[in-house]
Amino acid sequence: MCCKSQNGVMQRGKREDLNYGHSLFSTFGWIICGNKMNLSNFFKRQNFLESSLLLCFCLCAFFQCIQVKVSNLFQILVYLFFVLYLIKNPQEIKTRFKRFQIFFLIYLIYAILEFLPVLTSPDIFIALGVWSRTYLMRGVLFLVLLLSFKNWRPYFLVFFSLVVSFSVDSIACLFIDPLPKFGGRVTGFFGHPMVYAGFACIVLPFFFYKALQENILFKKVACIAFCFAFLVLLVLNGTRGAWLAVGASFIVMLLFFKFSFKSLLIVFCIASSIGVGSLYTSEEVSSRMKTLTSSEIYLKSERILLWKSSYKMFQDHPFFGVGLGAYGDQYKNKYIDNNAKERNLTRAHSNIFQLLGESGLSGLIGYLLLFGFLLLNSFRNFTKFKQGIYVVIFVSTLCLFLQGLTEYNLGHSAVMKFYWLWVGALFPLSLYLRNQNENWNSL
């Protein structure tokens, strides 16, 4: 690793996986602990448009877990500065587009497949609004980020802003009183347990990976501590689908590496986290834990009845579903199960069943194509280049996908924007590090 001493002389020491010491922990030191000349020089080398675009991206990422309206404001500024940058530097954007054109092609196919159910919707204007919000604009942020910068450092700053945002939201969980309607489950700034759970599904694989692969004892212990704290909060959050998704994703991550003492240590920490969390959970969370081992939930739960109704919609409208934006009305007026107790639900609490009922095969194929591509691309690149960043992308994507089996996280704007910023920063970051002969085995 290259690290800069106080007299400015570059010394060669033990290699770190991020050049110039910009791992997560050294970045805290880089930004907070006084090595400001590096950061200052970096911004001085950027022109006004590049600096403004980066600043807006970082602030958009930072506020994503804290206040979505502020994040949306910076998202608008991101688009404004990007258009100006495109007008001024069309050739640069064209060059970057060629590097990432497969992502644009896959996302275009996905958007088209999700658009087709609009044409069969009872209210085409409502359907267009749902399509533009859910399947078009959130992913555009990802595509714009892919094209915005020419080296790895800006992408790392966006990634770092996301990690800080989630950390601040996690700290807020300790001080914000849980809402009574959620039975005392911790929720963070957004006030909804499934939103915090979505953020956790995306970020936790990063800390899992760091805890497994970090060679420096202090950093390893710190990552284990982060894992412990975040997992306890996730238990207190009470989202069962996220519990199962995080557990399964961690097992998948272990498969990328040889089992060793350190792997067993992390497993022990996870088990301890769940145990400690269980001791202090509310009655609501405790009861949700018990349902995981109850056969009753798999036969008569409200969610199972909801999925049966979605499947009936699919049987009646196999190709394009009942139409975008029409799920709630169709469910309440035509497809609701006689045994259902919650009769005003407007979503299927599952990406798969929401798409089957609302968008049919067209929507489901588009969804599976997009996330299947992201999983396959990251896995293939890991096997080819052995860069740990691809493990983080793969497991974060898998974890979010698995949570989506029992929750309609596609419909949570904050979660999906966070995810698109996450992968939008990590994919180009890995490419530019590789082009500069830097091997990122550990963030």
From TrEMBL:
Major location (coarse): membrane
Bilayer topology: Multi-pass membrane protein
Domain O-antigen ligase-related positions: 226-368
Positions of transmembrane segments: 47-64, 70-87, 99-118, 124-148, 155-177, 189-209, 216-235, 264-282, 352-376, 388-406, 418-434
Subcellular localization, as worded in the UniProt entry: Membrane
Pfam families reported for this sequence: Wzy_C
Keywords: Membrane, Transmembrane, Transmembrane helix
Entry GO CC: membrane
Name assigned to this protein: O-antigen ligase-related domain-containing protein
